[in-house]
Amino acid sequence: MIGMAAHSHGHGSDLEGLPVFASAAALAAVYLVLAIRAYRDPRGWSAWRIASFLGGIALAVAALAPTSPFPPDDFRSHMLQHLVIGMYAPLALVMGAPITLVLRSVPASTGRRIGRALHSRPAALLSHPVTGLVLTIGGMAVLYFTPLYGATATSPLLHDAVHLHFLLAGYLFAFSIAGPDPAPHRPSVPFRLVVLGVAIAAHASLAQLIYAGALVQIPAPPVELRGAADLMYYGGDIAELLLAVGLVSTWRPARAATRARRSIGARASANFPLT
Amino acid sequence: MTRRPEGIALPGLLLGVGLGGFVDGILLHQVLQWHHMLTSSATANIPIGDYPATTVHGLQMNTLWDGLFHVVTWLAVLAGLGILYSRVTRARGRLWRSRVLWGWIIAGWGVFNVVEGVIDHHILGIHHVISGEYQTIADVAFLVLGALLIVGGWLLQRSGATDAGAQAPPVRVTGGDAR
Question: Could you report the per-residue pLDDT of A24-55, keeping only the tens digit for each?
């Protein structure tokens, strides 16, 4: 089945081809080199993080390659891509803690600059869970409730832009909810649980509307709409459960205490980078 | 920070109820497609009408009720996490390796099976684990599994609580609670 699907991949195969895979490979290589250096460092670096980040890149690449069990132009193929690119891959990348790894690897002066950037107002806005919520759910609503989805079928550039939006918005949301990376403005766990609950409800409601074919402007037959909505509904559940697991994995009080000290230090004199 | 093991019983049970709901919702409703919420509504013990999953309207009603079921499941998981977070303020990393917590979660899964089974399969009869010839056997097996999970989970949490000193520091037993 998968072998049969390995012919030309609908639209956007040219743009999603070599450059994307090459940059994914480069990103993986950079992370791996830095991670191996950090691993040999006395402080060490978790093998789980390495596996998570490389797994995230592999997932995104696999989603862009023609690996879907459905025909390439089937709406279910697109939904599968969106699920992996917008939910699973970003969470795996976030759990790899790339910002922490970069802070460990760069000189102190650069680290201080990154630390200041993380404390800045734009960073606070971008890394807020509500921003991630609006970008992910709002992006999906715009895609499916307007003629935009139909337009992506004819414009490879638009199609790629939608994928990029899913990946970045998904990354921001996972980062703000569960990230092990430093985010000085990240709200409390109860607040993040509530935002996660709202996201889950909105995601499931969107899936139900797609299932019913109500309000949506997706040029696909009902059987594809229902199949895709099922994938979104239950595939989304599993991704959201994993996100909740990610959230509880960053509950450690030692981390919270360190973070508090870091942000106090940074606010006081900005002379101690977020290493 | 001293907290009796009972302190995480409620959040553990809530998490178990929610996760048990996911096993039912994702595995039985979706992957295996054994049943939906109202697939046996025609033969139910309450007069709610007939909603077979083969007609559009029937499917809509099943989808709606699957959706409500989904909301309850998620609320249980998120509320469980919230309460757990508010009650356990130290050694949270080790909490997830505590047998007390996992015992209560497994017991919560059993509670889900028993409550869902008794109400939906037996009292209301709105759906069965499998419709047809083996309906009763499957429904009873669902209850037996639930009972086993409750007993197993309870034993597991008790074994964790007994050697809490060595096993589960986040829920250290206070004096006078020694079993």
Answer: 999 999 999 999 999 998 888 999 999 999 99
What integer pLDDT is reported at residue A167 of this predicted model?
A: 94
Distance of CA A237 to CAs A87, A134, A201, A264, B23, Å? 10, 19, 10, 37, 11
B96 and A CB contact within 8 Å: yes
pLDDT tens digits along B35-64? 766 677 666 666 666 777 677 777 777 777
pTM of this structure: 0.80
What ipTM was assigned to the predicted interfaces of this complex? 0.73
Task: Kindly list the distances between the CA atom of residue B11 and the CA atoms of A182, A223, A233, B18, B98, in Å, as whole numbers in the listed order.
Answer: 28, 40, 25, 11, 14
* Mean pLDDT of the A167-192 span: 92
Is the minimum CB–CB distance between A204 and chain B shorter than 8 Å?
A: yes
Q: How far is B91 from chain A (nearest CA, A)?
A: 7
| B45 contacts chain A (CB < 8 A) | no
Residue A268 CA, chain-centre distance (Å), reads 33
Residue A127 and residue A116: Cα distance in Å, rounded?
Answer: 14
> Do the Cβ atoms of A190 and B86 come within 8 Å?
yes
Inter-axis angle of helices A108-119 and A98-105, to 10 degrees? 140
At residue A104, φ and ψ (nearest 5 deg) are -70, -30
- The pair phi, psi for residue A70, each rounded to 5°, is -100, 165
B49 touches chain A (CB under 8 A): no
CB within 8 Å: B70 and A237: yes
Tokens encoding A254: 């030692």
